[in-house]
Write a sequence for this structure.
């Protein structure tokens, strides 16, 4: 059965936007399995349970795990592959002769799980991860603009990383909420206000953007325009 692996960000985005209830509907529409690694579970459940701010969100995610909406995958092979990917990724960009730490364990475990399962897509909101996979030299330019310093590229590490993750694509919580909208899962919010479909779409896309999804204001406007023409 096909499987879709989730990083931490999209689950947090859905939870903090009161949209986690969409997961079972999206899973049914996907007709496959939704999964996270044990490292991602730690970031979503165990770690926030130790805080006061995100404890309720952690309980909601744990509920999805107990209902088997999200399967938790524990594998030494995934951890080993993730450590390899993280080591490579965190040697690619160098500033002041020091490697930049750009990927965390959860993101690397998600990539590793997808690669070991021959799954070509992961669900990830992190802009750094997506850009590293799709346009790594743009990431160099992004860091230089942000840091106002020269960023060097370790070409060997970049080549090895690019070869290791070849074929992996990224979808975001943005795409998840658009699918939910298109399938009518959010029709209950089509209330009696002017331009309600536009208002709903904008509220969804701005909601996930403000909770970490990598999407620009221009892309939001373009997606709303496209969806309203459907």
């Amino acid at each position: 059965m096909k499987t879709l692996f989730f990083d931490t960000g999209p689950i947090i985005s859905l939870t903090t936007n009161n949209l986690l209830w969409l997961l079972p509907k999206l899973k049914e529409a996907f007709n496959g399995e939704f999964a996270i690694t044990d490292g991602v579970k730690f970031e979503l459940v165990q770690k926030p349970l130790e805080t006061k701010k995100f404890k309720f969100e952690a309980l909601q995610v744990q509920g999805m795990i107990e209902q088997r909406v999200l399967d938790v995958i524990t594998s030494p092979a995934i951890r080993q592959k993730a450590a390899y990917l993280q080591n490579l990724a965190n040697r690619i960009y160098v500033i002041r002769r020091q490697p930049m730490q750009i990927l965390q364990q959860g993101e690397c475990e998600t990539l590793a799980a997808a690669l070991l399962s021959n799954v070509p897509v992961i669900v990830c909101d992190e802009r750094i991860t997506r850009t590293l996979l799709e346009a790594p030299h743009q990431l160099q330019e992004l860091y230089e603009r942000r840091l106002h310093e020269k960023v060097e590229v370790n070409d060997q590490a970049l080549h090895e990383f690019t070869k290791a993750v070849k074929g992996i694509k990224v979808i975001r919580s943005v795409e998840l909420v658009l699918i939910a909208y298109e399938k009518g899962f959010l029709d209950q919010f089509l209330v009696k206000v002017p331009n309600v479909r536009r208002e709903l779409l904008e509220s969804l896309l701005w909601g996930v953007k403000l909770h970490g999804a990598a999407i620009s204001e221009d892309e939001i406007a373009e997606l709303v325009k496209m969806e309203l023409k459907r």
About this structure: The mean pLDDT is 95. The CA atoms of residues 190 and 196 lie 6 Å apart. Strands lie at 3-6, 33-37, 70-73, 93-95, 98-99, 121-123, 152-153, 169-171. The radius of gyration is 18 Å.
